Amino acid sequence: MKISNSSSPILPPLKKILVLGSGGRENALAWAMRKCKSIEEVWVAPGNGGTENHQGCKRLNIQENDVKAIINKCQASKLDLVVIGPEAPLAEGVADELREAGLTVFGPGANGAKLEASKTWAKELMLEAGVPTARYWSVSTEEEALVTLKNFQGPLVVKADGLAAGKGVTVAETIEEAKTAIQEAFNGKYGASGEKLVLEERLQGPEVSVFALCDGQRMVLLPPAQDHKRLKEGDQGPNTGGMGAYAPAPLLNEEDLNNVKELVLEPTLKALRERGIDYRGVIYAGLMITNAGPKVIEYNCRFGDPECQTLIPLLGPELANILHACALGCLEQAPKLFISNLCSACVVAATSGYPEAPRYGDLININIQLNQSLQLFHAGTRSNDKNDVFTSGGRVLSVVAQAPSFDEAFKKAYAGLDDIHFNGINFRRDIGNQVRKF
Ligand code: AMP
Ligand code: GLY
C-alpha cells in the first residue's frame, strides 16, 4: 500500500462488508466482494433466496432503508464498508445517515442521488457542465407542457421528473401520444414523481451504458455494457428493468470510452463537486450514440441491473478494495482494477406476467453446474428452511457466462438456463443479437 502524501486516509483493512438490496445486482455484488482475499464476512440485507448460495455470504433480515437496524448491525459486528445497491435508499438519504453515524459507505448521499431522482436537476447539471444531451423543456403544469408540445410541432419524449421504477418515460411516436402521456402524468399516473416533467427532443441511435466508480474526485471506468430493456424478442413489448445484457459492448472502443470519460463523466463529477457534492459511488451514464456523437439519455446513481451481473465476473477481486477506496475518498491508493478481455453474456429469466402482473410462488428447479465462467445470480427468489427456492419477484434470476467470443458466451448462458425450470419461466432467446451470429 502506498503512503498517502495528501490529507486522504491510508486504506484501512477490509474484512467485513454489508451490501444493501435484494436484487440480482446485490447478489452479484456480494459474490464479487467475497472474491477479495481479505474479506471474512459479506452480509446482504435483506438479500434473497440465493444470497447464502455464495460461500461466506449471509442474509440479514433488515430492510435496506431501516437505518437504525443497519447502524446497530454495523457497529455491533464492526463492519468496514456498506455498499448500497438500489436507487430508492440512496434518494432517501440512507447513505447520509449511515455516514453521520461514522460508517464507511459506497453510494452517494441524497444530494448526489438527484442525478437519478430528479431529471430536471440532472438536465440542469448537464447543461452547466457542457455534457452532450438532448434539448429539453422542464414543465410543472399541464398547460405549460401542452404549449411546449404545440410549439415544438413534433412528438417529444415525455419523462416524469422523479423516480418511477423505470416506467416514467414515454417515447412518443406521435404528437397525440405525447399529449396523452402529458395528461396521464398530470392526472397522477406517477404520483409525486410526475408533478414535474421533462419534455425532451427524441434522439436516434443505439444505446450503451457506462459506469464510473467515483471517490468524489477521481474515477475508474468499467467496460461499456448493453442492456435489453424490452420484454420480448426483437425489442418488442413493454419496457422492463432489463432482460439481459452483454459486455464489453463493441459500440464503444477504448478510445471512444476515453472520450466519454472526458466529455461526460469527468465534467459531471466536476459539476457535482462545484455544487458542494462529494459523490462517492457509481455514476451510470445511459448514452445514445447519435450521428453527432454520444449523448446522455439519463444518469443513474447506482450500478445497472442486469449490467452489474454481466460486468462483475470480468473484474478482478480487488473490486472490493476499489469500492472501499471510493467510499473513503482515496481511490489513488486502491490497487489497479483487473478487467478481463473475455466477453460476458447475461440472460434474465422472469416470471409470467412480468412486468405488469408477475406471478409468484412457483418452485424453482435448479440443476445448473456452475464453474469459473458460469454464474447464477438470484433476484426475485425466496427460500424456505428446507432450502426449496420459490419465485418471489418479476425478474427471478440471471445466468451469466464468459468466453473468448460472444457466440460461445451466450451458448453457455443459454445452456445453463436450460437447466433451470419453474412454471411460467420467460426469457428472451435473442439477448446479444447485435454481437452474435444466428
Ligand atoms: P430513461 O428512463 O431516461 O433511461 O428512458 C428510458 C428509455 O427511453 C431509454 O433507454 C431510451 O430507450 C428511451 N429514451 C429516453 N430519452 C430518449 C430520447 N431523448 N430520445 C430517444 N429515446 C429516449
Ligand atoms: N438495466 C437498467 C437499469 O438498471 O436502470
Topology:
Blueprint: E1 16-21, H1 24-34, E2 41-46, E3 57-59, H2 67-76, E4 81-84, H3 87-92, H4 94-100, E5 105-106, H5 110-117, H6 119-129, E6 136-139, H7 142-152, E7 157-160, E8 169-171, H8 175-186, E9 197-200, E10 207-215, E11 219-221, E12 226-227, E13 230-232, E14 236-239, E15 244-247, H9 254-274, E16 280-290, E17 293-300, H10 307-311, H11 319-328, E18 343-350, E19 365-366, E20 374-378, E21 381-383, E22 389-391, E23 395-403, H12 406-417, E24 420-421
Parallel strand pairs: 1-2, 1-4, 2-3, 4-5
Antiparallel strand pairs: 6-9, 7-8, 7-9, 10-11, 10-16, 12-15, 13-14, 15-18, 16-17, 18-23, 19-24, 20-23, 21-22
Helix pairs in contact: 5-6, 6-9, 7-8
Bound molecules: adenosine monophosphate and glycine.
As residue ranges, the low-confidence spans are: 1-6
Indicate the overall shape. Answer: globular
The N- and C-terminal alpha carbons lie at a distance of 48 Å
Could you say which structural class the secondary elements and strand pairing correspond to?
alpha+beta
Mean pLDDT over the full residue set: 94
Q: What about the largest sheet?
A: 5 strands, parallel
Our estimate of the beta-strand percent is 25-35%
Number of strands: 24
Present as ligands are: adenosine monophosphate, glycine
- CATH class identity of the largest domain: Alpha Beta
Strand order in the largest sheet: 3-2-1-4-5
Overall CATH architecture of the largest domain: 2-Layer Sandwich
Count, helices: 12
Residues in helix, %: 25-40%
In CATH, the topology of the largest domain is named D-amino Acid Aminotransferase, Chain A, domain 1
